[in-house]
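Example A, followed by Example B.
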Amino acid sequence: MDTYFGEGKMIEKIMKAVKSGNKKRGRNITIGAVVGMLLSCTVAMGADTTDTEEVGLNITNNGSRIKVDKVFPDNTLKGNTYTNNTEISVDKTTGTERAIGVKIDGENKKTNLTLKNNGVISGKSSVGDAHGIKVENLGENSKFKFINNGEVSGETTVTGADRNYGYGFYIFGDKNKNIDFSFQNNGLISGKSSDAFGYGVRIFNVKTDGSFENNGTILGESLTNAASSRVDMGYGISLREFYSNGFVLQNNGLISGKNVYGIGYGAHITSSSGDNFTFANNGTILGEGATGNSDNVGYGIYLSLISGSGFTLENNGLISGKGYRSYGIYVGYNKANIETLENNGLILSYGIYTGYGIYTTTGGAVENIVSSITTLENNGLILVSGSGIALQATEGDAETLINNGSILAAVSGIYMSGAINGDTASISNNGILSTKDSSKEYNGIYIYNSNKTNDRVGTLTNDGLISAKGTDASSGIKVSSSGKTGNIISNGLILSNGVGIKSTVATTTNKGKIGNIVNNGAISAEKYGIAADLTLYYSGLIDKIVNTGVVYGKTNAIKKESGTDDTALGEIKDAVNYGILVNGTDTDVVDGVTNELQNYGLTIKNNGAEVTAKTPVTGPVDVIVGYKRTFDNEGNAKDTEIKRKLTIKNAEITGGSAPGDTTTGTGTESFTFSDDGTEYDNSILNGMADTLEISGEDVKREVKGSIINAYGNAVKFGEVGKEFTLSGTIVNGGIKKGTVAIQGSDGADTLILQSGKVEYSDKTTGSQNTIVNGDIDMGDGKNSITLKTDTIVNGNITTGKDNDMLIIESGAINNGNIFMGEGDDTLTIGSGAIINGTLNGTKDPTSASPVPITTFDTDVDSENDTLNFGIVGSSSKEETRVFYDISNFENININSNVTFYEKTVKADDGTAKGLEVTGVNDLTIGKGGILTLRIDGTETNPDGSKIISHALSTGNAGTIKSEDGGKLLLALNGVGNTATVSFGGLELDDSLKTGHEADYQRDVTLETTSVLHSVKRETGTNNLEITARVNLPYSPNLRYEKLNKIYHSIVSVEDLLGNFNVDDEGLVLFLDYLNNIYAGSPYSYSSELSRKSAGMFRDIVVDNIFRPEKDKWMIYGGLTHVDGGTKDTYYGKGYYTTDIGSSDMDADAKITGAYMLGEYGISDTLTSGVVIGGNKLKSDLSNGSKVDGSAMYLGAYAKKYIGNLKVTAGAGFQYGDYDADRMAVNKVASDSAESVMKYSDNYNDITYDIYLNGRYSHNIGNNLFLEPYATLSYTYIDQDGANEGNKTLAIETDSKSFDYTVGKVGVDLKKVIPHEKGKSTLSAGVSYTKILDGADEEHITGRFKGGSNFDILVAHKNEHSIGLNAKYALELENGVIFDVKGTYSIERDSHNGSGKNRTKGEWIVGAGLGYKF
């Protein structure tokens, strides 16, 4: 029963509604008796279970040319290019197989075809698979190019035991036949399945060297029932059994795969081979799975079973995985290396159980499986709930992993495992590896497993920051089990709540160990600095440790924790110290080294209670500062020491004794410069505190190519001002609480940090960055600090009293907060500098610590401090984005493009808070400067009267001004119709001119980024009034007053405008949203369906040629179908100042039904009859909205025969019941709004129809007749209003009545063919129809809930149409009668100049069967 009218309850619903409606109108029409018969008849005759495939359009290759099986008037086939400009759709509800919008079959011949889609192509099935586009059987050397500028979709709604797939685009090839395949999507492609797999794009078994480019949106979604035991999948794009050389896949748009109960893949590539595959993501790739159990996984990109060489993956955009388990990029079970994987963008993976940023799997027992990545480089940001990068290769080439960006994870920053020969594998960290989760064991770099013979990692170099602030089981670098590592070289900073560098679980079977450790930087750990540590019963192995920097372990600086299992007792063979080893307890600083520690530096015990030094060697010695790994002809690894000739200088020990060659005391003296001032170049300087003091009056000192170490302050300026330059030098200090790496004096100190050239023992040279590991406190005095290019400071920078200056040039990095101290200070941040911390114009209220300070009190006295963004005269146009708090800079100068964001991260727990810029007295936006202030309109002060959620809302008492055209822009997000933006005590100077104050647009210096809002000053306050524009922008020059009225309705409802965030670029999208309400609301299309439905029953009566005999009945029934619609263009290019192009609204209308009539012969010249019928009505709009309805018709008529003239008069009543779905796509939604909303309602209409027809039959000989005819009809439709409920942005409409007077004339040529048992009649003709009254433009009145009225355009009715008619009738002597007929009509609007309507063809077909008594 649900073929046309749904379940049986629908019958009761319709009858009840009809009776109710008739009672209201005082009519006594009884139709209940016919409803059941009508519906039963309709279902029986409408059912079709034989079809296995329904196709909207077939495109085939007949060997010589491209052939199509249907003609769409708006489409073109030019040469080998087929262009779809209309809607091609299939909605399959019967049978057992698939629905296909467009099917391309090359019939295994060489095919050259380009398919361009500018319209809509869709396949929908409730009984089987569904394809938007399906391509198959392309012959060898075929060329197929697909360009989508419109919408392609495939959706199956089947649920239950059968598994049916939904494909947006599907190409099925032959791996033995090469084709030239090119794919470009600029629109929307979606594949959806209710209970199996949904593919946006699937490319299967294709051999090609072509390309794939997505500039639009590709969606694949599976909605498997939660109760199902299956795990189904949603794929954005899937390439399976794909064979190519030089294929390029580029995403510049959105690719999303989602399964709400299973697995989601953004991009899925598997079982593919070929060389030089390039995958570049510049857009967004999302994979979202469910969150219920371990089978629910989200993969951003999934790469598996790939063979061939030269595979490259580059991410410059966003890749995200979400689910119970999640992966940003998953690489598994490949047969060849991924050659290059480079992340320059953002990778997010927040699985409920765990989340990986980049993950490679182990091969297990499968042979010839490779899971390695030859080169992996992260220059972006990886944020995950598990491990940032997890590499678990079993075979393949060794890997190179470089991190120049940030990896923030909860478990491990980098995790490497697997049985690969990793002798040549390397890790280089130049960025940040960190965690915010102190509740879990965290390892910055974790090397777990290898093949037990070779190293898993050959060389690991840390020049950045590793912060393992998890539990006390955490490690900065951890090597475990058989995870052999050849060399670890750390020039940076390692912090840990457990162990700095750890080897553990190195059994005689596993043979895991660390070969060489060279520390030129600083290690500070709460347990052991470097350790062969115990896990359960098993300890670790370390061959050699060389320290030229500082190693602090609270228990031991170096420790071997003996195992209790004989297979893993643990060992540290050799240790050499040229720097400083420190602990924080009364135990041995070094414990458990097999061969005695070779100590040329200092050991400091119990937080400085005892310092010990041996007499160092005299003169420069060759000091190991690193290792270079090379290989012999047989591939065996060899580590070559990298040495520099450095002079070891231990500061003189004080407060102790010097027995033999060892000196012990409680402190050290400082090194000071001689007159020459070069004696500390190329040296290692060790002291407990104040290792190097900058002495002498008005001197300029420089240290080149050295390492300066201290437990306390490493560098200290003397009591008078000095200039000190560090060139290519590493400074390690501030380990002891309350000390820093560099301490200034109370005089005028100048500090310059820059890179420098160094020489190695083999006479080669190289460049060395200056790295400061620890805080810099310049003290009081008029200080000057410059961080030049290639300088890294891992700590806070603080200046003291007096007027200080800090310049951070392009290419410099500061990982810490900046405190400018008391006095009139100046901080200048050049373009390209990286500042990861807060900026404070006054002193640090906390004491220094070995950990970067993350909290401070801003309630301090203010001075006259200046913060400059950009340098006046600089040619750089790079935007500076501020994500951290700024406080206590009385003067801020904006000389470049700067954005203050609305949110920042709380340092203590990682949660979000409002970003604050406070303590400002004078903020000047200079020439060429733009300050964009992002505003969160959802947060107000307690009484709700003012928006305070922006960076400058509180904590200031001064002025914002513009100089030479500098601009202040308010970026609105979530602001409704009206709002007041508070600037607290910050006054807006008159130089900031709004559009209300400036004479010309070029003079405006204060405005919003939203084109829907304007800004003006609030009289007498420092507030700005944000108001919705009265009209759409530039309305005096535009012709869209109807859209403007809809906009007025939005504005008339409080805060409804806050659902939109419209800037200049978004105006076109907002106009499209309004236009879809005006021209694409489904409520305006049902009246045309009802009019055509009533007309169809009218034509059944007047066109019926059968005639009952006197006093006898004729019973006749049949099926009929109408397929047509409208294609309207409401606006075109040039109508808007902001050009939105043309706005087409297509409506694909279908009417399918059944009827039965009974006609009685009253006399020889008079008959009368009754007709009953039912129709299924449907109109699908190109914007995704639709209206479905059911109509019941009851009519009566009479026919009078006067000679050769037949006159028919009749009347009919029709009841319609409609379900409408309106899709609203808000492409400019604010953060608080839904971007896609679906609104629904059920409503009814009543149609009355009366008509008069005359037909004259003229015999022109030999049973051939010429029959002219004419029909005049009047139709009245009364449509109920609609109400979409209480959803945000829901609308309601008023009831509306329509009436039409229509005239139709035509002529048929009829041939009667007598035969033995009856006669046949063939007829063909032409007709012309004109709407005499009722074709004018009409509107339904609508409004947003509580808002003002606006017009909704009623579907356009073509005033003129020409029809071509054909009919065959059979009348047998035994009383059986039968006919079949068809009409094709071409409709065209008479107002061609308006561009409103294009030619639209409509098919009407029908067949009937009856009996004459």
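Example B, a separate protein, is given below in the same form.
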Amino acid sequence: MVSIQIWVTRFHRSPQLSPGAAEPEEMRASTDIERKPPGSSTMVTTPDYEEMSWELSVQIDQKSGDEAMKFKLRVKGDLHIGGLMLKLVEKIKAPQDWSDHALWWEQRKCWLLKTHWTLDKYGIQADADLRYTPQHKPLLVQLPNMKTILLTVSFSSVVFKTVADICRILNLRRSEELSLLKPPDDASNKKKKKDKNAREDIWDIDLLSGTSGAAAECLPNLPPAELAKIYQPLSLVDKANNFSGWLDSSRSLMEQDVQDEDKLLLRFKYHVFFDLNPKYDAVRITQLYEQARWNILLEEIDCTEEEMLMFASLQYHICKLTLSNEPLDHSKEPEIDEVEAALSNLEEDITDIPELADTLRLFRPKRLTLRPYKEYWFVFKDTTISYFKNKEASYGEPIEQFHLRGCEVVPDVNVTDKKFGIKLLLPVADGMNEIYIRCNNETQYAKWKAACILASKGKTMAYSSYKSEVRNIQSFLQMKSLAPPPGQATPDLDTMEMNAECFVSPRYAKKHKTKQLTTRILEAHQNIANLSLMEAKMRFIQAWQSLPEFGIKYYIVRFKGSKKDEILGISYNRMFRIDMSTGLPVTTWRFANIKQWNVNWEIRQVAIEFDQNVSIAFCCLSCDCKVVHEFIGGYIFLSTRSKDQNETLDEELKVIFEKQWIYLDNAVGHFYRTTFEIGSGGTLLLKTPKEMESSTAAKEAGADNRNIVDDGKSQKLTRDDIEMLKEQGLKGQEIIQQLIDNSSTFKDKTEYAQDKYIKKKKKKYENTVMILKPSCRILAMMYHGREPGKICHLRHDTLAQMLTLANIHAGSKVLVFETCSGLVLGAVMERMGGTLNTKTKDPSIDSEKSVLTAKDVQQNKADVEQQGSPEEQSREASSVANTSDDQEKEDREKRKEAKAQERKAKLEEKRKKMAAAAALLDGRNADGLVIAGRFHPCPVLLGLLKFLAPSRPFVVYSQHKEPLIECYTKLKEVGGTVSLRLTDTWLRHYQVMPNRTHPLLLMSGGGGYLLSGTTVAVDHSKPAGSLRAEEPAPKRLKLTNTEG
């Protein structure tokens, strides 16, 4: 059944208007209906129609692959797109489903998806070449594991939504991290013949079941000969050309010249992998591992020989576990508990903050110099590193001190050569300063690097995560060690059944013999032989992330004022300028220091402004500037994601729903609008589409219901029989079928009555739950249906009108006064889309004092100081305690003092927030005002209107119209507002079904009343009554004798 909602708005006249007074022009304009005399309509003749119309050529693409057809239609400019599509379908006269077809304008490269727009509005004329083509077409997508799949995607949706649909099919979470990339031109031109033969290796999603499970399995490594054919040494320019093919996420595939069955690469575009959980991200972790593996094998990212052998040993271990016959059950993988991780990060022992002090070596790189490391005495305290000439000098002033908050920690390690270095990139105004610190052994390196990592996040070594960070670094060093653990026998080369050369890049395979390579891989494998498959993949990804060049994308640009081409590198948190001739970075800029960036689309130039008046501008040469623009904005947006407590769902939590307890553990990981059936014990069972189809369709139906008598004897099953069926474990559909079979009047009912009966019984006996994404509309409907008093009987359509009348939009500064359980404030925040600039009024404060001024803030501060110090109160309370229990008394005093200090800190924090709110209000430049509450709105409205800028809207909601009539009268007297309107709305639902369309009998009696208007600037030098005195008096009409 389709439900239509109709809103009708009634305008109320001002109570000041007398019965004989003229109605205001604004009210007359909204209520008058234009009427034409019966003979005033004009008819267009055939010659006139031909002069105003033209022939439009449209090509129709068949969905089944048949030959395209061309039609010419005579159209007019006022014909809307929907009417043109209807004409096409009527002219084709082909019995097929045309619902997926849409019009494509070839010359403009755009879809005509707004069916209510006319041809004139789109600018379509007789020379336009239109195609009536399907929106969903087949596309070849190469996954990160180099496997190509064939699936049907939307060519009319933006790429961001298309990627989200592909990830939904593959069961890939966090689709915002991926995008589509056009393959390099060289590969597509050289291997056309190969692609035709490779069609057999393509997975067809429509024919293949369980695609997500297949995508979660690793593919075997290629033989060395095939790997050598793919491998090509890449320079910085080659890498820049490879990364230039990212598609624009805000445009559709066809708008970027992608045709059906073209091949695109699905890759992780943004290298910030948020919330990797082995329990839910089996496919995501596998595809991440595959992308990292191919990056290593094809040397798209540089690594040392030691790191290459470490990656090879991990690949061998993963291949060995994948080829084993044991079935993989990813649901048994250990889940990462976000709450425990967050709590562990918050745990800090502030009484004892550890310090590190030891002899280390320091190097500060300079141009045209070697790397002489010098020994100093280093002290790590809080989040700073200080170094002195020696230990005895550590009691004085340090030679230099480094503040590590916001820095980057890069490892500089070679376990084989016993080289344990830490590279620190310290942020400064014009880039980053490099500092190299060399440790003496593994233990010292693990402690200092863990301290640097925590300090870069603003944390000290007192956090409980410091010890776990040290252990992780030590295990990572052990994994990088190529020597076998002590006590282990020399590995047997015959145990390795796979070719060792397929685990390293072709360049490294040429440097070593196969036997030597096998020995070194097996020795390194002994350090990781006990890892599970998922742990090995996670270790591989972590090692990939630790590489210096991880996640860097290169682009050829030309900076403003420069005459030569340069390389711009973009990472997840910084961008840097690279000299193309030497390949060395010249300047580094951090995203955290960006104040704003702009794009001049006419000259295709990107301009970025940083802190401390540092600005750059450049033009992109190897790609469109939109690619760089998306990378900067994408990384900044993705950095705002956090493991908030609101995003964490307790899977073991019992939820009461419709008087029944249910568990949400089986719902985690599924998409919204998924339907579940409540099983025994409150467990949720996923319902497949086949199960959701009605199996109780009636075969026989009567002509009408006139002979059916509702005497209560038509149903043979009693209540006890139904309860017995439930105890036997019958599902809801089976119980409904039993009720139909045992009903003596069901077959005599009409088809409509049978459907109504089945729907009623399904609601009673089928325990199904659909999980919806929460929104203010759903919350408003829920509150209005169950507890309307909590939201002052505010209906969802009235709430929508309030947001529209107040002109709520992103970036606006809105004043909100509401006592509707936060519903109005939540709706305003949802409409603003995250750009929050909202000030709310606490309803617990008296409505007469609705505005907090700076004077009130100072008074509150004085009141807090006059209350006396909390320390004195705690001493008075503790003096009564037993003197024999001194230790217990001291502990009690400490707890009381801590509570008092905490209470004082909270009061101070609240005072600062109130002062900040008062400072914002003093600007008197708010963009809107929304009032909805149970208080009388008149004093609140008059108190807050003065903080609105001129020409700004306001809206007041009340359940009753009398308070709003008083506000209307008061605003007319005071002045400063125009376009005052007092309206109410009523809502009625319509049932829309074949041969049964009618309004529902029950409807909402009223949705409250709204008073809206706009503020204007008032000249306060003139008295309020002078405005009315200056109005010209109405002219007297002279009576004339009309009789002849």
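On Example B: The domain at 355-461 is CATH 2.30.29.30 (PH-domain like).
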